[in-house]
């Protein structure tokens, strides 16, 4: 297992205590190294032939830094190294795991694929970003409704997705869904 991140400046730095952007500037690779405790490489160095699968975590950073979904929605652009990584694993018929908002990366890069970001309706207030499912459909992909503790496997494209924090749920339910995604990725590897 190796961890990678793009060596780019963050779109913005958020003070998560206050929930607002700051004037501070940070680098995605450096900030990811903090989270990974230094054991990380530049995404530009990733070679798909050296790995059995790739998994992209989610989070708002994906929607701001790995692509421009947070600002541009379905009209977003995908970071060139993220795009080439996805393309390399897909071309090699190796599994791709995506959770939280990161399934939009597959929807943008692989028209016609199947992904989930949870539900397409804000069921009981648990899916406040349910409109993301409609945007995925507008990109020519199929959104599959799943509960937070489930994942979806697009067997034709070897793409496994789960909604994670796209659902307001207890952490153990989010953990279970991510666990099923990882298990399904490993089955396809």
TrEMBL record:
<dbReference type="InterPro" id="IPR029062">
    <property type="entry name" value="Class_I_gatase-like"/>
</dbReference>
<protein>
    <submittedName>
        <fullName>GAL3A protein</fullName>
    </submittedName>
</protein>
């Amino acid at each position: 297992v190796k961890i990678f991140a793009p060596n780019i400046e963050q779109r913005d730095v958020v003070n998560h205590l206050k929930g607002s952007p700051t004037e501070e500037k940070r680098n995605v690779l450096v900030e990811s190294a903090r989270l990974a405790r230094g054991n990380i490489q530049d995404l530009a160095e990733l070679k798909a032939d050296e790995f059995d699968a790739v998994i992209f975590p989610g989070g708002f950073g994906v929607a701001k830094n790995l692509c421009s979904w947070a600002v541009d929605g379905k009209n977003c652009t995908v970071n060139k190294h993220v795009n080439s990584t996805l393309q390399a694993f897909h071309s090699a018929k190796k599994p791709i795991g995506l959770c939280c908002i990161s399934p939009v990366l597959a929807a943008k890069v692989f028209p016609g694929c199947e992904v989930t970001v949870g539900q397409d309706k804000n069921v009981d207030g648990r899916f406040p970003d349910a409109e993301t499912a409609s945007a995925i459909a507008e990109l020519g992909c199929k959104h599959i409704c799943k509960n937070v503790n489930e994942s979806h496997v697009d067997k034709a494209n070897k793409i496994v997705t789960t909604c994670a924090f796209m659902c307001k749920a207890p952490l153990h339910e989010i953990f279970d869904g991510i666990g099923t995604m990882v298990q399904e990725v490993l089955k396809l590897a």
